[in-house]
Amino acid sequence: MRLLLRRAAVAAAALLCAGTVLAPAQASADEAVCQDLTIPVSLVDLPPLGLNDQTMYGRLCVPPGGSHTLQVLVPGGTYNSTYYDPPGLPDTQSFRKAVNNAGYATLAVDRVGSGRSSKPPSALLTASSQANAVHHAIQAMRTGTVGPRFDKIVLVGHSLGSATTIIEAATFHDVDGVVVTGFTHRLAPLTVSPTVAAVIPAALDEKMSKVVGLDPGYLTTANGTRYAAFHNPGPFNQQVIDEDEANKDLVTAGELVDAALLGIVLPYSRQINVPVLVAMGEEDGVFCGPLASDCSSAESLRQGEAAYYSPEANLRTFVLPGYGHSINYASNAPLLHDAVTSWTNEMVGQ
Fold this sequence. Notes:
The protein is of the alpha/beta class. It contains ten helices and eleven strands. Strand 10, helix 9 and strand 11 (316-320) form a beta-alpha-beta unit. Helix 3 (127-143) crosses helix 4 (160-172), helix 3 (127-143) packs across helix 8 and helix 4 (160-172) packs across helix 8 (253-265).
């Protein structure tokens, strides 16, 4: 039991991670129509805590002509919805635009406790409660209560967002496909330390300390640590790092703990019964390397992860060459977008 708890603690510290994925094909001459949504959600569906006691922000973008399929994009710790559409970077690094150009709608959300979503006491925020909130958002999009109604939904996560995605899909069985990025079931003990060391209380950060209503359980990353924590050993691009730093956000300690327990120590992913794609950066220092996951090729990644998924998942894998953890910021991110689009076309469809 002591070994199990120690493994969970190390995993929890390391799960302070990033954004998410989806797909391009041919670029459209017409822009998608986007709107900001405020979605009523609940962290726990147990009266008297009540239903819809929190709000989740989402940026909904629908391609010209509409779409029957929606990708719900869940960012990781210290990231928000801008991970999928970084405002200061080229369009080639916009996951959102790539997906819309491929004919799919997107809903990029801010996890509760981050971005423009509500900020409850940090003790209420775990990966499981976040999964419950995402479930509410999915139901709202299936029924059309906050906007258009969608027939098919693909749930996409990155790192901590992937842990939430796995828990949601395994618990509620309400999606048609799952994309897991920046997350495997083995941590990299030899290279994860820069990510762990980057984490500080939000109250000690000049930017985050100004957010109203935060308690000591909210965390962020120290200034100047984003490259080492999330991009190394990928090519250093000052524009990318400046953009990442400018849009950094919050995470809570509680999110990290049960993400580790359910996502790694007790692989809840075996309960997912729809197609799954796992995409990693070849040089991801959080999960890949010696004594961790082998991300040297898609096949080696598949072999390492297959035991953690059911046969119904029909597991597929993809590896983005030459980059670290936050793969949507890579200059070759279009390879990722194409891989996810092709998988979505085949496994889910429009």
